[in-house]
Amino acid sequence: MSLNIKDIAKLAGVSPATVSRVINNTGNVNEESRERVLKILGETGYKPNALARGLIHKRTNILGIVVPDISNINFSELVKGIEKEARNHGYNIILTTSGNEFEKEIECFQMYNEKRVDGIIFSGTRFTENHKIEMDNSTAPFLVFGQDFEHEKLLTVNIDNNKAAYDAAMFLFSKGAKNIAMIGGPLWDRAAGYSRFMGFLSAAVENGLNPKELIYEEGDFTIKSGYRIMKSILNKKIVDAVLAANDFMALGAIKCLSDEGISVPDEVQVMGFDDNIISEIYNPSLTTVKIDFYEAGKICAKALINKINGIEVEKNVKFPYEIVVRKSTK
């Protein structure tokens, strides 16, 4: 038998309005009545119709998530963190992947607005005029993870990429490195590309290196590109350390050095970014800048849900990172 609010009210000996206030956690209800209603709800297993509640309260309690690639362990951990925190607040998520294709990102935004999600969490690498138009037209607030895009409607969650890369390079200098090369991301990527390059550049100049003689080559964050670029670097200049903009490129660099008979870390030290699970079990294990993507996901969800509920939140959140020292450095 299907129960409704009137049935629950009759069983609990209260008014339907009281049951509604308990379910929606609104208004004043004395503790005794609240306990009776909750007891009946538990015993009957009653669940209010989510669609009907959404129409009444103009809420769906759903967050839309857009990430480039869920097979990437960093994004899978991010989504796990988002979902965990969202569920703690009574929200569900819908997930789509974009492959970093701008047109698909826009389609995802439009689809989420059609489904009337309460908020959108987006991880991408570029912020085009079309992105801006969609955000201007969106009824749902946006949060961007991993980039520092400027827009009045945006919340952002990120590490300080400039400082993290600076700290990583300074760590390598502290371990005796004199000639550091960087395998970076594309410079149009403002966070993992440009900001990390600028942090590396600052540390290099501070340690007396000539900016015009620095080796910086752009990869695409894959192991293959790390391998290819490391081989290119070896053909150009003798280096004693390599900083990569992510762990996958760092692991590709280590494989190349091994194939060339160059010892890591005795001859060349290697350091990455992210601290994914492969980095810990690789031989040699990788020294890296640890980014806790699971915790970052929880931070994203909590910030966006607070925004949805009218709670004042920091517009640009920076979360912590740390250097994890392993066997690929001295």
UniProtKB/TrEMBL annotation:
InterPro entries: HTH_LacI (IPR000843), LacI/GalR-like_sensor (IPR046335), Lambda_DNA-bd_dom_sf (IPR010982), Peripla_BP_I (IPR028082). Gene3D superfamilies: 3.40.50.2300, lambda repressor-like DNA-binding domains (1.10.260.40). It holds the Pfam family Peripla_BP_3. The keyword Transcription regulation applies. CDD domains: HTH_LacI, PBP1_CcpA-like. GO terms for molecular function: DNA-binding transcription factor activity; transcription cis-regulatory region binding. The keyword Transcription applies. Residues 3-57 form the HTH lacI-type domain. It comes from the Bacteria. Keywords: DNA-binding, Transcription, Transcription regulation. This is Transcriptional regulator, LacI family. It comes from Caloramator quimbayensis.
